[in-house]
Amino acid sequence: MDSVTEIFLKLLFLISVRNWNMVVAGNKYNCDDQLVSGLPQSSFSSSSELSSSHSPGFARLNRREGAGGWSPFVSNKYQWLQVDLGERAEITAVATQGGYGSSDWVTSYLLMFSDSGRNWKQYRQEESTWAFSGNTNADSVVYYKLQHSIKARFIRFVPLDWNPNGRIGMRIEAYGCMYRSEVVGFDGKSCLIYTFNQKLMSTLKDVISLKFKTMQSDGILLHREGQNGDHITLELLKGKLSLLINLGDDKTHSSNTQINITLGSLLDDQHWHSVLIEHFNNQVNFTVDKHTHHFHAKGEFNYLDLDYELSFGGIPVPGKSGALSRRNFHGCFENIYYNGVSIIDLARRHRSQISFVGNISFLCLEPQVIPVTFLSSRSYLALPGTSGQEEVSISFQFRTWNKEGLLLSSKVHRSSGGFLLYLSDGKVKINLHKPGKTLSDISAGAGLNNGQWHSVFFSAKRNRISLIVDNDMTSSVHASISLQIYSADTFYFGGCPNSGNNSECKTSFGGFQGCMRLISIGNKAVDMNSVQKNIFGNFSNLQIDLCGIIDRCLPNYCEHGGECSQTWNSFYCNCTNTGYKGATCHYPIYEQSCEAYKHRGNTSGFYNIDSDGSGPLGPFLVYCNMTDATWTIIQHNNTNLTRVKSANRENPHTVFFKYSASLDQLQAAINHAEHCEQELAYHCKKSRLLDKTDGLPLSWWIGRTNETQTYWGGSSPTVQKCACGIEGSCIESQHYCNCDADRNEWTNDTGFLSYKEHLPVTEIVITDTDRPNSEAAYRLGPLLCRGDPPSEVIFSFDVGNGPSEVTVQSLTSLNDNQWHYVKAERNIKDASLQVDQLPQKFHAAPPDGHIRLQLNSQLFVGGTASRQKGFLGCIRSLQLNGMALDLEERAKITPGVEPGCPGHCSSYGNLCHNGGKCKEKYSGFSCDCSFSAYAGPFCKKEISAYFGTGSSVIYNFQEYYTFTKNSSSHASSFYADMTLSRETITLAFRTTRTPSLLLYVSSFYKEYLSVILTRNGSLQIRYKLDSHQDPDVFTTNFKSMADGQLHHVKIDREEEMLLVEVNQNERMKFILSSGTEFNAIKSLILGKILENSDVDEETMKASSQGFIGCLSSVQFNHIAPLKSALHHGSSAPIIVKGRFTESSCGTLTGTDSTLSETTHSFADHSGPIDEGEPLNNASRNDSAIIGGVIAVVIFIVLCITAIAIRIYKKKSIYSKNETKGSENEDSAESALKSELSTQNTASENQKEYFF
Known about the structure:
About 10% of the residues lie in helices and about 35% in strands. It is mainly beta. This is Contactin-associated protein-like 4.
């Protein structure tokens, strides 16, 4: 599906998103002009007027002419005030006032709009009817900015409520601007053909946009086809828009041959609807009005064979696509944009790219059809008939969501009988009756409550009746009856008045709710305009000249695949076979884990679990082994021992594992569990796991993160070893796996993989079984998970009539190694439980329970007397009835309980800076700086180095592996999945040389990233993420940065979005065009590039100079290359060339070179502290406090003395070095080197101190 979708968009939609925004939004420049104040009085009209001085022409805002506003003759809900703006406008705001100096104002109203003054549409917000709040007095102005603009010529204000002590009174204004557009009209027999340029098909950003309006429920909007039955069609079907992509029958590929995506509903309402199809890289969006369907297209466009013609409105030469039965479009298009070109503008100017079939006009004709909305079951429309005629003939169209409702009723002339035409179970039925007897009950049609327009024709002549639905003779009925039917004087549509004796309307079902149009009596169309003006017939609770039907199932609020159905007033969800229940199929009927089933008393067996609860993932089947520990067992398709021969690197043995759940479901189950594991057994005979000669793995496995893993069962992800290598029990001590001994006898490396983030295993690759006597066998066990993270706290008590419970459920796990607050309370009236900031839960006291709890045992904290299911963790600040309990003293004499608590990271973890991770210690904490570019107790000490001429630091991302020329191709394929879509880079530097190369990252695919200083000293970032394109080049707008000062740079990329920050305040945003993925990264280089690299000229110039100066705190994602080179050179994959020495040049500058790092003091934690170590002892007492204060005072005095001495020494050293340096080197560079040397001397023996 994905590839075919991208075929369509690749070949079809080639217009920029910017053009779409311009077209759809209309005029976005200062669109807030007054549209009403300058109009003549003839532009105003209304339902009625109280007097000539209250006419609608006096309804301008802030005007006092006439009586100072419009008021109708009668104040009721059928009144309206209408304005003709003269031409279509974009309306962005409205404002209202009451009648000047009166008690007449409107407190709420509806806003309607139309292009023709007919077929109105109600302004809606969030798919629901929105009434505007009006005025509270006569003269204040109430202004509303519309959340989405209206594009129309006519607007109408419909009062809903008004001042009860006055009448309806309004003055109004509308704000906006004129709306310009290109339109074209189709008569249902024509089409427009556009032939486009083949050269424009290579872009990655494609968009097509248009608007359309029609009264027909079916018709082709656009079509494109090829020679072999391939075609693409955008078609209106039953009022919904369908995007159809069809591949011809002769294709020999595995993709589906047809894709059909449907959006929208009720699109045949003769109002404008927008269509947008966007394609950017692999992301595709298909939008109709405000509803969007997203695709993620992949693959090459190899299958769809299409011509370079696109037709709008129909198929010019049907036949090749087999679409002879499809109807052409009958209606209007507006603003068709394709490939950045206005198609309608080309057609208007008769350009050569455009040709026509049939008649096309450049205006939009509005059908003069007036629909009627029956708002409730009490609505009715009474129309007069000609009494006594022998023939009754009535026709109309209707649309509704209700299965039942009265459509038409009338008495029979000269008889006390009558007939009913009504909906029942979605069918149209006729009921003929006379007192005490039903003569017939016949039906036609089915499923007529689907929201579509349906036509009904009913005729009766004496004793012969006919009923035809949708002009379909197969669903028509004809019958003879024993009742003579003659025309009566009144026909009731939709219902009957409540007053009087209307026996012909008394039915077991309610009135009709829906829309009707094209009503005809006696073959004569009813003039609904006259009905609206009370000239003809009468009505109640109707909206005339609009159809107010809405689709409550769009969007579908039924979750988890629930089926949506609706009536006029509401929607319903059918949750059958979804695994969920509730009004919207939200609540799961299955438990989240086997542990939960065990708590319900279930035994071992197969169960459906819903691992994310009410989330989007569905339930799946697992086996629950409910022994002492409850295990969730998830099987895959290959648990047998499988033997492998004749596999090598060029022809590897690859096996994929398919589980009984999707990867998303598996991830949710793993995340929900406390522990997961999977046994992986690898049996070998002369089949190695690692090739010692080139350092490359010979076998590996892949988990759900799609990353290659080279550690095996019983080991951990951080080392490439097997279980025997961890335990030191391998059959040959020089190897870390038994199989690497390469013996001609069977051995194995078997164990459990238990790193949750990598599970489950989805693929195994074996390459070393093609030598003589070489063979391997593997077996992968099922995925096993156990334990639920605690997420609820229960307060249980018994006051004499059985246990009661109060439960607070947390959305997050409570075993997150953070402190949580719990407060439980019980009194005579109720019990309550509070957990953290969650809503407090209450439980009313039982009416017949004891007032006081009668407790006579000891208070057990953290467990029970039987020591079952004891608490493992920390408890502090325990209070009972307001009295604090000394848990620490009791812990000293209680077995299994210790004073103190390793919970310091929640309080002091923010002291670990620059990506350092807080780690708990028994009586304190420490900062783990492993993934930080900084060092020191709090990860605040900058790691800096001085780079001399030609020096280079190379960090190889393929840790522990070396690549020879013979294995380079394999290495490239093996690490092809090491793809980055985002990276974060931070560094600081000082230099006076230009051009300079600060950082370079290479890949096996000739992609690269370089950060350089150009010849003028500006910072430049160069990304080349497509080996076939030139690099993206981004230059920061900053002064020369080769000024010898320390500059900080941060680079953040996420796909095509690039953010650059310089010196923590200058921020810039850039967009990449060369790609979004950095594939198969190879190495990171600081300084000079020594390897052969295919880079651009500017990067090459910068590399030839290398870098001379100071680099500090360099970090690439979680890699810190400077730190690795200086502190872990023997174990890290680092190569250092040239003069490269550690320095403090990134920490100390100028006059502050004698300042040490900030120390931290805790008033509530004193005592003996190991120098430079974070919080090792959190206990305190009085003597410790006194001693700490004295120590602080003494230390401050010593510090002041030391600083004074150091400043004096530093000045002396600086002066000597500066003098010496000036004799040997150029002034600018020598000054920098001298300062770096001075700072390095001054910073010796610096340490962080923690108080």
